[in-house]
């Protein structure tokens, strides 16, 4: 991807010209580091980065950015930690897991939440044909959605009776996809397995065996029969439909309505060393998110054409458009309206809520990645250490003053916690202020003082 280094003088002159033309722009931040390299994985929800680059929002802030696709989530995180990347499109769980020392230990923060929703769960044609006869139908003859995991349970039991493991893919141990897939399975009485200090496979006591597959490889792995289903972001569910190798059965919007998905991650050290740069990049990303959602998604087809390029997602525009433009195709030919499948700006999508961080931490605890009980105060403390609405709101305030965004677009009076949410597939209510009480609601999963020892759950 073009680096813009050669254009730096020209761009800087243009920025100065704008500064003199518009009084608000005269307040441009004096960025400490102007040449930046950001990483991403080839998924449609990296869109705010692509748009900030293509629409010149980074340059408006005096930033000259290179965007670079990464091989997988681990490589991406490691390169942010070493400083090879200045920041990256990250799984929401990555900054949290790194900060508490699950896997690679490093203090990563996020000043910006990249989107809501955007994932789906797909099963192979074989599994779908086993599920389909038992699924309820609407009066018009269409299959009733959302499809609950209880309809997958007999299939998993049949595989188990035949001595065959029921393998499923997710993109990373601390990914939204892992937690959403586990949440859906457990809501249908299918145990997705525990982690322990000694065994980080995540398959202890599991009925369905979950393992890591990089997003672009999901369809091929499904087609090869290595896995029977997966949870991934777009366009890799719709790709299975287009290739005729699998059927998406549910979206994460149906598992948890308007769930937070990706974040933009930087090291705490970067934010401390380059505070104006952190503010500037946050400003550019907020503007990009607004562009993606404004005027009832009027810009989405242009976004699709950009994302389809090889330097970004590199999938067919038709496949990307299937979800990015407000629809989602389940079984081939069964395309339904899901206007909020991808949300980048509305519903305060870009605000880094502490309660979002707490939800991910509860799932880490539920499945044993946090092996021992923690107090409610601990969850709050970690959330505040990683999620940085202070940076976000400062950037938003500047954008309001500059006339780029409306004041009503931001939750100025929030304490960082959303109101209790109950739009989950199983009907449970999540209140980020009481994480331990939340965990007590689930029949499957660790709670209280329970720990996983060997292949058993002990304590309570």
TrEMBL record:
Cellular location(s): Endomembrane system
UniProt entry keywords in alphabetical sequence: Cell inner membrane, Cell membrane, Membrane, Signal, Transport
UniProt-listed Pfam families: NMT1_2
Superkingdom field: Bacteria
A GO term from the CC aspect: endomembrane system
Gene3D superfamilies with a match to the protein in the record: Periplasmic binding protein-like II
Signal sequence range: 1-21
Name of the protein in question: ABC transporter substrate-binding protein
Organism (species): Nisaea acidiphila
């Amino acid at each position: 991807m073009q680096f813009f280094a050669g254009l730096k003088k020209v761009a800087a002159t243009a920025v100065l010209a704008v500064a003199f033309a518009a009084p608000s722009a005269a307040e441009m931040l004096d960025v400490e580091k102007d040449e930046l390299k950001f990483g991403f994985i080839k998924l449609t929800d990296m869109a705010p980065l692509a748009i900030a680059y293509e629409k010149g929002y980074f340059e408006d802030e005096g930033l000259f950015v290179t965007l670079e696709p990464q091989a997988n989530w681990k490589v991406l995180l490691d390169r942010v930690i070493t400083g090879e990347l200045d920041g990256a499109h990250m799984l929401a769980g990555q900054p949290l897991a790194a900060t508490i020392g699950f896997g690679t230990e490093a203090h990563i923060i996020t000043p910006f939440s990249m989107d809501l929703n955007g994932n789906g769960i797909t099963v192979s044609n074989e599994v779908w044909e086993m599920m389909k006869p038992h699924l309820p139908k609407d009066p018009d003859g269409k299959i009733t959605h959302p499809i609950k995991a209880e309809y997958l349970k007999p299939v998993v039991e049949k595989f188990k009776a035949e001595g065959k493991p029921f393998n499923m893919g997710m993109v990373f141990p601390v990914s939204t996809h892992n937690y959403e897939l586990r949440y859906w399975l457990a809501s249908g009485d299918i145990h997705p397995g525990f982690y322990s200090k000694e065994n980080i496979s995540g398959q202890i006591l599991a009925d369905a065996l979950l393992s890591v597959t990089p997003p672009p490889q999901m369809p091929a792995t499904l087609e090869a029969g290595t896995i029977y289903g997966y949870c991934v972001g777009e366009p890799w569910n719709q790709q299975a439909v287009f290739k005729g190798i699998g059927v998406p059965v549910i979206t994460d919007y149906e598992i948890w309505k308007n769930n937070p998905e990706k974040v933009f991650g930087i090291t705490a050290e970067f934010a401390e060393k380059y505070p104006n740069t952190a503010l500037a990049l946050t400003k550019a990303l907020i503007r990009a998110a607004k562009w993606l959602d404004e005027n009832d998604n009027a810009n989405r087809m242009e976004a699709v054409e950009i994302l389809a390029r090889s330097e970004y997602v590199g999938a067919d525009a038709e496949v990307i458009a299937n979800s990015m433009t407000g629809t989602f195709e389940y079984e081939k030919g069964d395309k339904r309206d899901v206007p909020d499948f991808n949300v980048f700006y509305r519903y305060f999508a870009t605000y880094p809520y502490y309660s979002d961080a707490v939800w991910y931490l509860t799932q880490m605890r539920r499945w044993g990645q946090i092996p021992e009980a923690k107090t409610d105060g601990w969850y709050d403390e970690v959330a505040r250490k990683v999620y940085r609405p202070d940076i976000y709101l400062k950037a938003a305030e500047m954008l309001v003053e500059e006339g780029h965004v409306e004041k009503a677009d931001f939750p100025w009076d929030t304490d960082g916690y959303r109101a209790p949410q109950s739009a989950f597939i199983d009907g449970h209510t999540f209140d980020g202020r009481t994480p331990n009480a939340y965990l007590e609601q689930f029949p499957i999963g660790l709670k209280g003082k329970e720990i996983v020892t060997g292949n058993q759950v002990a304590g309570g």
